[in-house]
Amino acid sequence: MGTGTGSEAPGVGDTAEQTGRTTTSNRRAVVAALMLAMALAALDATIVSTAVPQIVGDLGGFSVFSWLFSGYLLAVTVTLPVYGKLSDTFGRKPVLVVGAAIFLVGSLLCAAAWSMWALIAFRIVQGLGGGALQGTVQTLAADLYPLEQRPRIQARLSTVWAVSAVAGPAVGGLLTTYADWRWIFLVNLPIGAVALWLIVRHLHEPARERAAARPRVDWPGALAVFAAGGALLTALVQGGVAWPWLSAPSLTLLGTGAVLVAAVVLIERRAAEPIIPGWVWRRRVIAAVNLALGALGLLMVAPTVFLPTYAQSVLGLAPVAAGFVLSVWTLSWPVSAALSQHVYRRIGFRATAMLGIGLASLVLLAFPFLPYPGSAWQPTLLMLLLGAALGLFQLPLIVGVQSTVGWAERGTATGSVLFCRQTGQTVGAALFGAVANGVLAARLGGAGDLDSVTRGYDAGTAAPEPVRGAIADAVHAVYLGASCAAALAFLVLLFLAPRRFPVLTTAPDPGIEDTHTAGTGPRSR
User: Fold this and answer.
1) In the prediction, which pLDDT does 210 show?
2) At what angle are helices 284-301 and 377-403 packed, to 10 degrees?
């Protein structure tokens, strides 16, 4: 098989007549289903934001409403490696179908919620399904297409994710204004039902050889991963927000998380089929991409969380205009990702990713040097350039990792890199939030955090001095930290990743008809 310890799925490389085939039209239907599933997962990460006032007015619970976001994202993050392993064990289709069903049930329960705590619980149920949607969709995209065509499908998925994530608040606002907040969850049902029907009807995975023994699922490991991730991520999300960093809740969660991480290591070492196998960190390619995408998640916090505040409080833009400043990177990112194949075919995955993250580091570093207070076109231009740089960075790494493993390991590898990216975002939110609040405290004499400082000013009106200058300095410090995160990703790829990724030249999933043919065996790119 070239690289890897897992065995290739039976049938890979066989002829279509031996395994059966899915027609090209069926593959298009499956791709449509994957795009719908990806849109649902991305929308529900942000769609609730503009509906919070109406939800709180109806259900109460203002002090805990932040868990509507945190609960969903935590559930998605900690389940990514679990679903990755399950898809390698039982196949992509059953995992995706079960995940979509859980997501839709969670959406229906959210719409019927009778209290804030009930809604939070049902959002966590949604997240348990959302983890399957995110990870399995990315894995299936690699199964459906050979290496030469993967950038095309990944660019489509990137476009859907970016547009859906940015459009989420607007869609939520429209539904809340002209209907009812419960419709932000009910709208998932018809879209998800169509995606589920397309998957059940058109996705035909090839028959796998039955193993001598039943597949063994590492349920103790899965529970330990879930518990450890939940404790640590909760500490990071709520620390400095719901309670001080050095308070009893923070220290208890961090201590519990550390003990559970040790338990995960012990359980996974003894498990026959571990949820997080050791090879995801022993192989240089996957370990380097894990760390690099973790740094990507960290640096993405700067524009997604802090740029809208900067645009409104420093530049004096209305919320819609501030959203446009952020959204322009959704235009350049997928275009750059789609074109990245022409670069990495010439210079390789590693060099292309290093080029992208190097440019991203320079773009982020340029932000603190913008004129004060400046004009809206300046950060807009930087966001356009940042999207182009990150398109060159992320997609070659994901495609590269998926191309170095066979079918039986692809779900685990994909889940690993996505888990690290999500974890990086959580760490980044906590870290950069502390940085911003520290700068504000130094400039304003301990006048509070960024949210409390900006609260009370009219939308579309810049904050008065000296608050305006303090907010600008705080966001500049965050962007400087994001530039350092990009530089860290560059160094990880430089010193840890091999110059050429050992690509397996296996054919795509044999249930898919394709005009490309390929032998098996390793090659480098």
Assistant:
1) 55
2) 160
